[in-house]
Amino acid sequence: MGHLEYSEAKKVVVKGLMILGVVTIAEVFVALFGNGHIIHGFYLHKIVFYPVMIGLSLYKAYFIVYEFMHMRYEVKGLAMSVLLPTLLLVWAIIAFFQEGTSWGKRRELIHQKDKETIHETQQPSETGMLDDDRTYQIQ
Amino acid sequence: MATDTALDHHADVQDGNLWDGAKSPFQASYGKLMMWYFLLSDAFTFAGFLISYGALRFSMPTWPVPDFVFKSAPFGVENAPLIFVTFMTFVLIISSVTMVRAVQEGHRENKGGAVFWLLLTIIGGATFLSSQAWEWTNLIGKEGMSVTTNPFSNFNESGKYLSAEELEKAGFQKVETEAHGAAATYFLRPRAADVPENRYFVKADHHGHSMAGEEFAAGNHFLITYNHANHLYEHGAYMAEDGHVKKEEFGPQAFGALFFFITGFHGFHVFSGVVFLTIIAINVAGGLYVKRRNGYEMVEKMGLYWHFVDLVWVFVFLVFYLL
User: Are residues B241 and B314 in the same domain?
Assistant: First the structure.
C-alpha cells in the first residue's frame, strides 16, 4: 500500500505482537485475580473487573481492525460503510439482554406460582366479593 | 513497484470529486471491498451467536464459571484455570502477526518471503485447531459435556458429600447393578421406587475417586459425577446444611450447545482459513500473482480474512473464557 516504509512497517508488526500479547496477559490476570485465583480467597465484584476485561477486548479489536487490517489507511467512506453498520449491534445487545433477563424473571415467577397452595377457609372474608361461600387465600 | 500497480490510497483521498465517476471512490479493488463486506456480514453472524449466548445466560439464575470449566491442559495438567486457552489465544495472535508479515512481503513482490510467512501462518492455524481438538476431546470424553448435557454446575447451599455408609444409615437402600458391562452401585431413597429420580450415588471426581466426606460452600462449582466405566451420569448425594439428603443437579443445558456451536463455527473459520492459506501459498510459490501485477493482492485479501478470525476469537475468548 505504500503508506509506510518497509522498515517502519516491520516495527509495527513487533509493536502489534507486544500490544496484543500484553493486553491478553492483562485480561487473563484480571480474570484470575477477580475470581480469587491469584490471592487465595480474595474476590472482586463483577461490576469492578468485568468492564476492565470488556474494555481491554474492545481495545484489542480496535487494534486488529485499524492496524492489522489497515482500516486506518483506507478511505473514510470505506471505513464508515463497514464500521457504522456494527452500531446496530448496540441495539441488539441491549434488547436481547433485556429480553433474557425477562425470561429469567418469568421463569422465577412460574416457579413461585407452582409452589403456591390454595387454602379453603371456612369463614367468608369481610370484604367478600365472591358470590360463593368460599374464599381463597393465597399463601 | 507495488505502489505503481496497486491502487494508491493516498492519491485523491480528499478530492471532492471522488463520486463523479471514472474513479474508484473507496480507492479499493472490487475483491478487497467485497471481502470487507463479507467480513461485516460474518461479524453479524458471530454477534448473533454471542448475543444469544448472553440472552440465555441472563435468563438463568446460575451459569458455569469459566475458570472452573476450562482448567485442564494437555500432559496431565489440572487446576490451571484459563492457562491452555491463553496459549491458544497466543497461537492465534502470533499467526496474525506472521500474516501481516506475509502481506508486507507480498507488497514488495518478494515471493520467497511471502511463502515463508504464509507457511508460518498455516502452522499457527493448524496448531490452534489441534489445541481446540484437544480441548473438545477433554470436555466431551473426560468431563462429559455434550450438546445436550452440561455437567458443570454450582451449589446454592453448603453441605457435605455422603459416603455409602452414611447413606445406608440415613435409610437409603443399596442397589448393585450392571450397565454397559460395568458395575454400578447406587442408593435408593427410603421406600422409593427404582426410577432414576430416586437414585443417589456416592460423589466421585472425574477420575472416579470418591469425594465422600468433602465439604463445600454455597457458590462452589462442581462437575456432575461421570462414570467412565459405564458411560453414565451419576448424581452425587450430599447432606445440605438443613439436614436433608439431596443430590447434585446438572447445570444450564444450553451451555454445551452454545459452546460447541460457537467455538466450532470459529474453528470452522480457522479450518477454511488454513485451506485457503495453503492454496494461496501454492499460488504464490507458482508465481501466479506476479502475473496479476497488483502487489499480491490475494495475499492481502486473505490477510483481512485471517485477521478477522483473530478478531472474532477476541470476543469468543472474552465471552466464553473471561466473563
Answer: no
